[in-house]
Amino acid sequence: MNILTDLTKAVKASVKDLYGKDFEGEIVFQKTRKEFEGEVTLVAFPFLKLSGKKPEDTGADIGNYLLTKTKLVKKFNIVKGFLNISMADSEWLNYFGEIIKEDAYAIEKRESSGLSVMVEYPSPNTNKPLHLGHLRNIFLGSSVAEILKARGHKVIHSCLYNDRGTNISKSMLAWKLYGNGATPQSTGLKGDHLVGDFYVKYSAAYKKEIDELKKTGLSEEEAEKKSELARQVTELTVAWENNDTEVRKLWKMMNDWFHEGVAETYKSLGTKTDKNYYESDVYNLGKETVKEGLQKGVFYQKEDSSVWIDLTADGLDHKLVLRSNGTSVYITQDIATANEKERNFKIDKSIYVVGNEQDYHFKVLFLILKKLGRTYADNLYHLSYGMVELPTGKMKSREGTVVDADDLISGMIDTAKKTTQQLGKTEGLTEEGAKNLFKIIGLGALRYFILKVDPKKKMLFDPNESIDFNGHTGPFIQYTHARIQSVLRKSGLTAEEIKNKKINPAHALHQKETDLIHLLSDFKNIIAEAEYTYNPALIANYIYEIAKAYNQFYHELSVLSVENEEQKLFRVQLSYKCALAVKQGMALLCIEVPDKM
RNA sequence: GGCUUCGUAGUUCAAUGGAUAGAAUAGUGGUUUCCUAAACCGUAGAUACAGGUUCGAUUCCUGUCGAAGCUACCA
User: Fold this and answer.
1) Bridge partners of A393?
2) Nearest nt to A422, CA vs C1'?
3) In which order are the strands placed within the sheet that holds A154-161?
4) CA of A472 to C1' of B22 (A)
5) Cα A255 from Cα A351, distance rounded (Å)
6) Residue A148 — very low, low, confident or very high, per pLDDT cuts 50/70/90?
7) How far apart are CA A318 and CA A152, in angstroms?
8) Lowest mean pLDDT: which of A51-55, A250-254, A416-420, A448-452?
9) Which nucleotide's C1' atom has the smallest distance to the CA of A43?
């Protein structure tokens, strides 16, 4: 049920009655700007062709019609071509009476759509620990998954580990050359960090080698070709593909370190996966598909036996799909993984959560799959998100200029602890309860900070400025929820009692009350739009509006100390519903809300 | 060079072609014997530039300037 359904119909009817013709377009209402009276606004300009009148007069025609011929409208005003409508209190109250009864009013029943969607994230390389970019990836992926579930779809979380190839070989080589047998146990480092340290060590050594070669008069390109380290990396990669026992043993050891380390990070974030894919498993399958493509004439082979696809007819370029030495490249294994996903699951849609630096790659991948005749190619979607940038520019693992995920997470929880203690809000909490609260607030602040930004846009993070806990933030919303819970506790009513008491829709509503009902009525549409656009930021900003509006309501009006019992009950119900919307909305962002803070 | 994306208050973010471009934060001035002040209320401050389409442009088109990404037998 939508509060505007009846009004939309009434506007259509009014235009037909007034001007004798049906309006062809869609009737769109916008929220009335706060400097004008009213809740919803109809722009008169689209109706001018039918009315043949000035915008002001057209608006007045429709306004008067609605006022006199329906019971939907309390009053209206017209500013320029804008018809500002105040809906009748009874409309708001009737609508509210409907939604207060349903706890899941904006959430579809589980798996009711019958569609299955796979969401793949964060798909890290196993040669370095997670950083801030991965966090944006994880937050987006997990939130989109929750939104899809709320829309009634079945969701399969998948993750692809890029666990072989050049970058992994670099870490392995550095460990062999400079490691002296170091292990997570011997160094006390988290496994993924230890592996990452060797990746950085390789990069530094490689840079030094190139610089020295260049001093002998070689060009950058010539130096790279002559690099001994690069040669050894290639050698390791080839040895790995040839199943060299020693290399495989080293590889497995370092991969295990990585997975143990990253599992801890996942745990602290509550990240879970239904199905893991490993490049080391699928890369050979990719080679099969390359053969198939050659047979079908989709690919072609050069004299050096490297395999390519010509995409110039599609406005793209020639793309390598298999190296001359027979080893796989990135896209080879992505072709294989796509095939595997299709073989393993019945999926109606497959979403890859990957940064926008790979826009071109996914364009090519989807096109190749289509040319190979894979019917599922049309159901693949690249959820492309913007980079997280530092004030100094892009983060680069090679140069060690990254914001480490583990550091950031623990730092946020620490700040939450300090702030909570400063505000004296740890009273009455058990040690366990306090610890949990710090985690909820710290992670909530971090998640919200990232999710409130439109995924498509790049965003900036300044490590020198701490993430705020006041204003347009996660903790502000969490605080609002806790505040409402406190009111509800003091009301002495149970949730069941609050939901089931009937209100007499006769009493007059305060503007702050209609504002809240109006906002609540948007929830379902917001979730739908967030699904279609894969954009959790819509929900983040919507929930903020509710929290802000509730705080204004709370300051201006008293909930519990009003004389009129019915009015008090209504305000308790309204508070309950706002808290529920906040909780459900935040759950779609994978952010918990505490009952006390 | 080519392709793609992006330039909004000091800063970080909003705005299906609609009104006087919203928030937050940092400034600045207030609110607490009153349901949680992680709150609320004032005040001040922005569409890179130049054209075009439109009743109306931050939004669409063209150009200029600026930034980022891709353009690897890296992933």
Assistant:
1) A390
2) B38
3) A275-278, A154-161, A116-120, A349-355, A380-385
4) 13
5) 26
6) very high
7) 41
8) A51-55
9) B18
Contact indicator for A304, A335 with CB cutoff of 8 Å: no
CA A74 – CA A37 distance, rounded (Å): 12
pLDDT confidence tier of residue A51, bands split at 50, 70 and 90: confident
Minimal CA–CA distance to A474: which of A312, A389, A591, A560? A591
Distance CA A334, CA A132 (A): 24
Is A346's pLDDT higher than 70?
Answer: yes
CA of A470 to C1' of B45 (A): 21
* Cβ–Cβ under 8 Å, residues A321 and A306: no
Backbone angles phi, psi at A131, to 5 degrees: -125, -175
Backbone angles phi, psi at A402, to 5 degrees: -120, 155
H/E segment holding residue A435 = helix A431-451
Alpha carbons within 13 A on the beta-carbon side of A125: 18
Distance of C1' in B72 from CA in A444, Å: 39
DSSP string, A103-131: TTTTSPPTTTT--EEEEE----BTTS--B
Reading the block at residue A139, the tokens are 């937050």
Q: What is the pLDDT of residue A314?
A: 87
User: What's the pLDDT at A155?
Assistant: 98
Residues making up chain A, counted from first to last: 597
> Taking 90 as the threshold, does the pLDDT of residue A108 lie above it?
yes
Q: What is the DSSP letter of A559?
A: S
- The three-state (H, E, C) secondary structure of A262-323, written as one string: HHHHHHHHCCCCCEEEEHHHHHHHHHHHHHHHHHHCCEEECCCCCEEEECHHHCCCEEEEEC
The DSSP bridge pattern shows strands A307-310 and A318-322 to be antiparallel
Q: Measured in angstroms, what separates residue A27's CA from nucleotide B57's C1'?
A: 22
Higher pLDDT, A25 or A186: A186
Give the contacts of A203 (CB within 8 A, at least 6 positions apart): A170, A398, A399
Burial of A459 (0-12, 13-18, 19+ CB in 10 A): middle
Pick the residue with more confidence: A158 or A38? A158
The runs of H, that is alpha helices, within A323-383 are 330-344, 359-371
In this prediction the ipTM stands at: 0.96
- Token match 């043949």: residue? A52
Give A365's pLDDT tier (boundaries 50, 70, 90).
very high
What count of other Cβ atoms lies within 10 Å of the Cβ of residue A500?
11
Q: What percent of chain A has pLDDT over 70?
A: 100
Residue A578, both tokens:
């706002």
The confidence band for A368, taking pLDDT boundaries of 50, 70 and 90, is very high
Gap from A34 CA to B58 C1', Å = 21
Nearest protein residue, CA measured to C1' of B23: A472
A405 — phi, psi (to 5°)? Answer: -60, -45
Task: For strand B, give the nucleotides within 7 A of a protein CB.
Answer: 4, 6, 11-16, 18-20, 23-26, 34-41, 55, 68-75
Residue A88, Cα to own-chain centre: how many angstroms? 37
Q: CA-to-C1' distance for A459 and B11, Å?
A: 13
